[in-house]
Amino acid sequence: MTPSTAPRRSVLVTGAAGEIGHGLISSMRADDVSIVAMDLREVPDETRKLCDAVHLGDVCDKNFLEHVLTMHETNEIYHLAALLSSRAEHVPETAHDVNVQGTYHLLRLAARLSESWGSRVKFIFPSTIAVYGIRTVEDKMQAGALRENEHLSPITMYGANKLYCESLGRYYSRHYRQVAKGRPEHLLDFRCLRLPGVIAAETRPSGGTSDYVPEMLHAAAKGEDYACFVREDTTIPWMTMPECVEAVLRIAQIDTPPHAVYNIGSFSASAGDFAALIRKYFPEGNITFEPDEGRQALVDSWPRDVDCSSARNDWGFQQKWGLEAAMEEYIVPAIRKHYAPTT
Ligand code: AKB
Questions:
Q1: How far, in Å, from the CA of 86 to the mean position of ligand 1?
Q2: 95 Cβ closer than 6 Å to some ligand 1 atom
Q3: pLDDT at residue 6, as a whole number
Q4: Closest to 87 measured CA to CA, from 198, 192, 229, 211
Q5: Measured from the CB, is residue 47 less than 6 Å from ligand 1?
Q6: Gap between the terminal Cα atoms of the chain
Q7: Is 94 exposed, middle or buried (0-12, 13-18, 19+ CB in 10 A)?
Q8: Would you say residue 214 lies in a domain?
Q9: Among 187, 191, 185, 173, which residue's Cα sits nearest to residue 257?
Q10: Cα(3) to centroid of ligand 1, in Å?
């Protein structure tokens, strides 16, 4: 057998202590890959033990980033660290520092590394449906499934940050120093997925606005009451964590995709649709609706659904489950197992 000449994958995951970090690192561990995790917060033991190294530090600290990247000869970056939409509205300037400055530092370093390694460092970036901003609920219902270039007027700091960083990533990977004489031969390889609300059974989100569905689920599974902070008719696109992780790993592995940024999502559902199904599976918890005006406005500006045809056509993205099947085949069994008493 001829030995492979491809360099060993050396992966950096920022925001490794978060929900996607956990799912991604668990799925990646099966591959022959060196995984370096980074977060400001302590990385849970379950994730830590799957990593070759863990660094605690701030993505806003340029020197720290440089140290980590060069020390591990990183050639693949999953930049998950971010302050999500609701949290970012409480501390918008901090959110800008983390979401924009942190991403900018990392993009610059990855561009420099691509140049010095002589091969393109992959930069995988999760973006969000919060990059969309629809003016009224009537417009939202009429607009239906949005394509990647429609309604790009986010009303949140988080959405604005992500939209700008999508452009920065595109710039560094396609147009970097485009008129300069000594333009680098190897630019970084930026790939971005706009994620919908993501539902995980093993972990709980924090700081997001789409958190109402995971919160509702986890409360009901524990037999607790839950007051949902958006209206019953509030509708956005969704997917499960396993589907999200699979899509992130897939966009990272395919040959150069034609576009830098893709919508993905599995189904569109309202808070009421979820509540009805959750009551069926977990009747002990009482779900009520007590909309919070501020957070409601954020979700109202997000699309009812997203058009994933580019992702389907360009790299074979496929949704695995609709709402009912996702509940039946993943969410309910996995959440029951998660809360099952240990013997
Ligand atoms: C949030 O609610 O902020 C995130 C998102 C939709 O990107 N889950």
A1: 8
A2: no
A3: 62
A4: 211
A5: no
A6: 47
A7: middle
A8: yes
A9: 191
A10: 43
> Whole-model pTM?
0.96
List per-block mean pLDDT (blocks of 10 residues) for the chain, which spans 343 residues: 64 96 90 92 95 96 94 95 98 98 98 93 98 98 97 98 98 94 91 98 94 97 97 98 97 95 98 98 96 98 98 97 98 95 74
**Does 109 share its domain with 233?**
no
The answer on 274 and 129 residing in a single domain is no
User: Does any ligand 1 atom lie closer than 6 A to the CB of residue 285?
Assistant: no
Counting atoms of ligand 1 from 1, which one is nearest the CA of 128? Answer: 7
- Name the domain count of the chain: 2
Residue-range definition of the domain harbouring residue 283: 198-239+266-304+321-338
Ligand 1 pocket test: which of 20, 84, 248 has the largest number of ligand atoms within 8 Å of its C-beta?
Answer: 84
C-alpha 85 to ligand 1 mean position (Å) = 6
**With a 6 A CB cut-off, is 133 part of the ligand 1 pocket?**
no
Q: Is residue 77 part of a domain?
A: yes
Dihedral class, residue 59 (left if φ above 0, else alpha if ψ from -120 to 50, else beta): alpha
Span 208-252, pLDDT tens digits = 999 999 999 999 999 999 999 999 999 999 999 999 999 999 999
Say whether both 204 and 220 belong to one domain.
Answer: yes
Tell me, in angstroms, the distance from the centre of ligand 1 to residue 203's CA.
Answer: 15
Q: 217 and 184, same structural domain?
A: no
The reply to whether 233 and 87 lie within a common domain is no
Residues in the chain: 343
| Nearest CA-CA partner of 232 in 277, 204, 283, 274 | 274
Task: Check which CATH number belongs to the domain holding 173 and give it.
Answer: 3.40.50.720
We report the CATH number of the domain holding residue 214 as 3.90.25
